[in-house]
Specification:
By secondary structure, the chain is mostly helical. It has a domain of 71 residues. It is 65% helix and 0% strand. Helix 1 packs across helix 4, helix 3 packs antiparallel against helix 4 and helix 4 packs across helix 5.
Amino acid sequence: MAGLLVWLLFEYVAHRYLFHLSLSSVMGRHLIFLIHGNHHEDPKDPLRSIMPLTVSLPLGFLIWFSWCHSGIPAHDSAFFGFAAGYTVYDTVHWSCHQTSSRGRLARVLRKHHLLHHHAPIHGNYATTVPLLDRIFRTHIKIR
């Protein structure tokens, strides 16, 4: 459970503060575009809806290695929770962009996430747990 909770906070913080970082240098702007801006450029592109394995596997290894050396007694279980959260996130995120979202929960998550892409203001950074946007006051209210 601890790993899953860490993932949920990581998902929100990374999306809000890293993926939407505004940098002044050309190289910095290009890096942010490669990390996430290209997804905003074409949100319907199925190849831009999830992180490619060439990125997620090495990052996953580094995160697992960090958990192993963190001193946390159940580091493998914690990492499993983190990885499970990431897998759910990738599935939900891909579904938000690539499916018609059947079911009430799927429609709520899709609407919440698509507002992130199409609203005239910034917000709705949490993809799998929209409650985090309410807690951190980044929920986009539509009238």
